[in-house]
Amino acid sequence: MASPFIWLQHMLPHHAVSRMAGSLASSEAGAVKNLLIRRFIDAYDVDMSEAARGIDEYRSFNDFFTRELKPGARPLADAGEYILSPADGAISQIGRIEDGKIFQAKGRHFTARQLLGGDEDAARLFEGGTFATVYLSPRDYHRVHMPAAGRLTSATYVPGDLFSVNQVTAENVDGLFARNERLACLFDGPDGCFASVMVGAMIVAGIETVWSGLEETHSPKLKRTDFSGGAHSFEAGDEMGRFILGSTVVLLFEPGRVEWLDGFTPGDSVRMGEALGRRLQPNAGA
Q1: Which residues are catalytic (predicted)?
Q2: Is 10 designated active site?
Q3: Of 88, 119, 140, 191, which one is the catalytic site residue?
């Protein structure tokens, strides 16, 4: 039987709750935003020593939540040899894509095709490849960075629910990361085609990218944007987007491209820029 926490999530109007939270979080009223920020820091033990700005310098709670870090706060591993963690957070799952399936938790799976919004051609590229799911907790730095060098080829907004993405929910909601609202970004680079999928969650008020700004989320329609013209290229470690509250990043790589480093298990903490996997074709370029 589902826990009250899971049951409540099924009953709540996800998008209405998230829009309401987003409206509050975007308020620039000094008393409101300062109270929210200070309460949040205390509740989640946020480390402000690495933030580039002081508590009173943020325009809104959203501005604080997507805060930038001081230069050098996240040194990058050698991108010529390694695949980098795209975010601060915890490993939810990490492994291999088998029979098109990506492991979620406790016997639950979802498919690459589902995750990518029904794109069968893209999903086929990742059959037998590798995946890593990184969960960003409320206290974490919430900007998402490139795990490897690549040129953006497409970005697909996939409508969906907004369940929480913590471990309890992952263990109790089927196909969670392919069920929630998400933005599936595909890149081509020295490590072949790879995907970085930004998955929304309860009270996530938006997903923002460096190439398009704030995405039109909370929409019922799938939207695929073609960027094959090559206008947006990135180096490993470059910022690619951020969550306006919440969430999770799922990485997909083609077979024969990445070998995850030994020792990573679900629940392990990672920081943006640290080595997550070894590139199997390092001479193809960094």
Answers
A1: 88 (charge relay system), 145 (charge relay system), 247 (charge relay system), 247 (schiff-base intermediate with substrate)
A2: no
A3: 88
